[in-house]
């Protein structure tokens, strides 16, 4: 292989969700985009998912390609293409576990399925069988890329096979660990050697995520800063000691953003624009204000928040400072859903101050695009953020974000100072402490910058020039695959 040639690997990408087949959050976005970007780099990729009811109901040709008898039970392996692509998707079909309503992890009552341990244990056993070519498909991967706790048992199970492929385990959010009671372990058909603090046992519980953290050849997270943070007690969720122990095998790669997030071609926007014609963004702002019922006032900036209404996202900090924000020259728009107390508080304020605040409870993808295209400043005061996507959307749409210096936010947004404005690196406003006073000062700083027209437009253009493509991320993953296989 010459220096100009890139290696081609067989990669089995295992995930519990992938857009557009099934999605509950950022994991679905990654699993629907990264394998496609890897294919564009001429990698031989297969995506493997559970055969959920929702997935089987979607349009597309599905065929049975294999049957497997596993320790937890017998399954079929189905094959289809990811919609809009030529990417092969293998579906692990076990109707008692996956043919049910609700999202992948919770029933219609909003509670976790009581047999989640058994469901995802079976899925992991099936992934291992595919990785060892025990399904008779005549395809054996060089590397298995596992994602979050639902695939955490895969590296553990593969560790018992001398001729196994290499394994990479990606942490998308360490707060979700797949913890189950001790008595569950016996029902999972796992070797008893795994019931140990050096394996899957975690303070008297069985931990699926430890399967990946202990046994994978390499571990990565979805941003370089988050990879460092999770080695500390503040962000390590009790696993910081293990992660620090494996620090030589731990790294971080930023997620990318989908090609659909492009203000120059976004069909959701009333008027498309780029860094060359930023004035068109004001047309989107006027249309957005009309849509959400806020009056249009010349020179008055529009602040926006899109996200889950939970403490992690800092919504409580915003609610705490809203009375003081009302005294500043700005309007504010919220889109999201989450804890009822936060939903109710926003709706009360919107009814009380209809010319200053608007709130849309729920999630509306086209509206999210129009908010990014029409707002002036984006607010993202997350207490922790493994990667984050909205700050990258905001930068791409010329909507400078105000963010807490944490995780992926620290890696994607450069604070505005006289020096960073001069050298062209400034892209937003960054604050260091997740408290209401510090957030308030950051917003004031953003509003002062907004009044300086030339500096503000330079800030917008700096952000719009950033490369957050999945192709960039895929190249970094390809380099990590190469490193993992060489070790």
Give a written overview of the molecule.
There is one protein chain. It is built from 19 helices and 18 strands. The chain has helices spanning 26-40, 53-56, 95-98, 116-131, 153-158, 182-185, 208-215, 224-229, 240-245, 280-292, 315-325, 340-352, 365-374, 390-396, 407-412, 418-423, 436-451, 453-464, 470-486; strands spanning 10-14, 44-50, 63-70, 73-81, 88-93, 143-147, 166-171, 179-181, 201-202, 205-207, 218-221, 250-252, 302-306, 331-336, 357-361, 377-380, 401-404, 429-431. The strands form 3 sheets. A 9-stranded mixed β-sheet has the order 3-4-5-2-1-6-7-11-12, with helices on both faces. It has a 6-stranded parallel β-sheet with strand order 15-14-13-16-17-18, sandwiched between helices. A 3-stranded antiparallel β-sheet has the order 8-10-9. Helix 12 (340-352) links the parallel strand 14 and strand 15. The radius of gyration is 23 Å and the shape is globular.
